[in-house]
Design brief:
The protein is mainly alpha-helical and about 450 residues long.
Length: about 450
């Protein structure tokens, strides 16, 4: 199916089946992406505790780079999907090409800056001399691969803008499978290939990403013909870069706020001891798994909105949002029931310490009741980007962090200890939902989209 055929289906076919068809591949892509980090951690754990700690120190930096790539990908996807919906394929191809140029330049700058600052950066983050050695072994080759990583992420987002979620998912799955194969070979060595240890783990990731990047670029350039060989004029490139950055910068900042919220909440939880932190960490990981379908939907709904916006079919935008919100509420309510009923069993799987088990059970009996509302906020945030209001998504996340989560957590923990803290998280999700839904309705009215 080519771009034109996919566009016709997205702007004309029944919304429910179309959204299902688009989202299922992205669910498997997200599973694959989550698996990538687990694979690295699993094989590196055989090298020792220090090496595993090194990966822990690297996580904030790797997440920051990923956030930058996601921001650029969201910008390209948001703008391109509207052009495709309006059947302006030439302009879409030019925008995609300029987006790749902008991503390449940005990734080179980020890579050089990181290579030059690895030792002082991680020392500032608290790494001691012993841990700094494996960190540098891992981060030096990883940093060089930033260019490939960011371009691969943008390739994936571009395919989603084209309505081709299968190829987008294939890129993620190929990357993970390649990493699974290469990790043990390059970390521990085999035959004539020496054991590279931490360097091997990074090399495996870089090679896996490089393979996926070439596949992505081949499909975009050859199969879809959406890369333009001619260089843009300076004025044209500046205009496209400005439009892309207006979405990319707020999107990057909004992405960064999410883990920052988790860090601040962990600081509050730490006052109740190590066991509380361990139980809280398990709860947060279960939360990520519980919301995987929502994350998959968040990668397809912006494209659906964009193409129908470009095709001047606003009624389908309201319908897809309404349907998605109802589905997320129903799914997460079911998920809450499952988590409450199985909280005891889940707790015993993760720990044999009673205090840790109690924390896990308390978390799962309180926080997930708000996951449906939190999931809708995720969908609203990504929709704001394609509706031309990327700063609102940033403001929503910032309001949740500064105005709700952290102060509510302090108050809840002070009054009712851990149960109060968990209740405050659920309350913050509920209030954020109310603010986000009000802002969405206001934006839809401004755009004269009936709601």
């Amino acid at each position: 199916m080519n771009t034109s055929s996919r566009r016709q289906a997205i702007i004309s076919d029944p919304i429910g089946p179309t959204l299902y068809r688009l989202t299922v591949p992205m669910f498997f892509a997200i599973v694959a992406i989550m698996g990538l980090g687990l694979v690295d951690s699993y094989f590196i754990s055989f090298l020792g505790t220090t090496e595993l700690a090194a990966i822990g120190f690297a996580m904030p930096i790797t997440f920051l780079v990923t956030s930058i790539a996601l921001g650029f990908g969201m910008a390209i996807s948001s703008l391109t999907s509207k052009l495709i919906g309006a059947e302006r394929m030439g302009l879409a191809a030019r925008l995609i090409t300029d987006g790749f140029y902008l991503t390449f330049v940005t990734s080179v700058v980020v890579s050089v800056m990181l290579v030059l600052s690895i030792a002082p950066l991680f020392s500032a983050l608290g790494a001691d001399d012993q841990t700094l050695l494996p960190i540098m072994d891992y981060m030096e080759p990883w940093s060089i691969g930033i260019v490939f990583m960011m371009i691969t992420q943008v390739c994936s987002s571009t395919f989603r803008a084209l309505g081709d979620t299968k190829t987008s998912a294939m890129i993620a799955i190929v990357m993970t499978l390649s990493n699974i194969i290469l990790d043990p070979i390059l970390i521990f060595g085999i035959g004539p290939i020496p054991a590279y240890g931490m360097q091997g783990a990074a090399m495996a990731t870089v090679i896996a990403v490089l393979i996926s990047m070439f596949i992505g670029l081949y499909y975009i350039a050859i199969k879809e013909s959406m890369l333009v060989a001619a260089l843009p004029s300076l004025a044209e490139f500046k205009d496209n870069a400005k439009d892309l950055l207006e979405i990319a910068v707020p999107a990057v900042l909004a992405n960064v706020i999410v883990p920052l919220t988790g860090v601040l909440l962990t600081v509050v939880v730490a006052k109740f001891g190590t066991d509380a932190v361990a139980g809280f960490g398990v709860g947060v990981r279960i939360e990520a798994v519980s919301l995987m379908v929502v994350y998959a939907m968040s990668s397809t709904i912006p494209m659906f909105i964009g193409q129908n916006l470009g095709a001047q079919k606003p009624e389908r935008i309201v319908q897809v949002l309404t349907l998605s919100f109802k589905f997320v509420l129903g799914l997460q309510l079911l998920m809450y029931i499952v988590l409450v009923l199985s909280s005891g069993a889940i707790a015993t799987v993760f720990s044999d310490q009673q205090s840790v088990q109690n924390t896990i059970q308390n978390f799962l009996s309180i926080v997930p009741i708000s996951y449906g509302l939190a999931g809708i906020v995720v969908l609203i945030n990504v929709s704001m980007n394609v509706l031309g209001k990327p700063k609102l998504a940033l403001y929503i996340n910032l309001f949740k962090l500064v105005g709700l989560c952290f102060p509510f957590a302090l108050i809840g923990a002070y009054l009712f200890e851990l149960k109060g803290l968990f209740a405050s998280m659920a309350l913050a999700n509920a209030i954020t939902f109310l603010v986000a839904i009000w802002l969405l309705k206001r934006v839809l009215r401004e755009l004269k989209i009936n709601n």
